[in-house]
Design goal:
- By secondary structure, the protein is of the alpha/beta class.
- The chain is 44% helix and 18% strand.
- The strands form two sheets. Strands 5-3-4-6-7 form a five-stranded mixed beta sheet, with helices on both faces. Strands 1-2 form a two-stranded antiparallel ribbon.
- The longest helix is centred in the C-terminal third of the chain and has 23 residues.
- It is globular, with a radius of gyration of 16 Å.
């Protein structure tokens, strides 16, 4: 597993009873070549900061020659499906860390069951450990790297992330050459 912004990892909110609970905003994007991307944005980030993070994601995907699937309804600027926790309270769901982990697991399982991606690229933070555990259970390959917001805060992380992406990119290149 790779380093992520420690402030993000420790980010939590308190429910009415004062218990710590998980809080995250995620984006999911189906890519070609049997790939998918899950990226985390800080829930408290401004709309401008979230837009900058999505721009960075688009730049990384273009540099890696990874394209959104045509049927995903997404392009580099509009980054796929969103998923946030906690969910609106009108759904009657408990606002606990355990419930958040179960919701994230269900979200990823549904995407995996419908898309059958071979590899998930995760720009994580708070959810990194949960995503790693879920991925091991479902059996797809995963590449876990620093969050987009961490890379925007500490530019030197971009080089580390680029180096961390190389094994995944080599697997994709091999798969592409075998198909052609």
């Amino acid at each position: 597993l790779h380093r992520v912004d420690r402030r993000q990892r420790q980010m939590c909110i308190r429910d009415r009873e004062g218990a710590a609970t998980l809080r995250f905003d995620l984006g999911y994007l189906a890519l070609t070549d049997g790939m998918a991307v899950l990226y985390e944005l800080p829930p408290a980030a401004s709309a401008e900061d979230k837009a900058r993070a999505r721009e960075l994601l688009g730049a990384i995907l273009r540099a890696c020659d990874l394209q959104p699937r045509e049927d995903s309804g997404s392009a580099y600027g509009a980054m796929g499906e969103g998923f946030s926790w906690p969910m609106p309270n009108d759904l009657g769901l408990p606002n606990t860390e355990k419930a958040g982990a179960a919701a994230l697991s269900g979200f990823l399982r549904r995407r995996y069951d419908s898309e059958r991606f071979d590899e998930l690229l995760v720009f994580g933070g708070v959810v990194e450990g949960l995503v790693a555990e879920i991925g091991e259970k479902l059996g797809y390959k995963q590449t876990l790297v620093a969050s987009l917001s961490a890379m925007l805060s500490l530019a030197s992380l971009k080089r580390e992330v680029w180096a961390d992406l190389q094994p995944m990119l080599a697997r994709i290149a091999k798969t592409r050459s075998e198909k052609s």
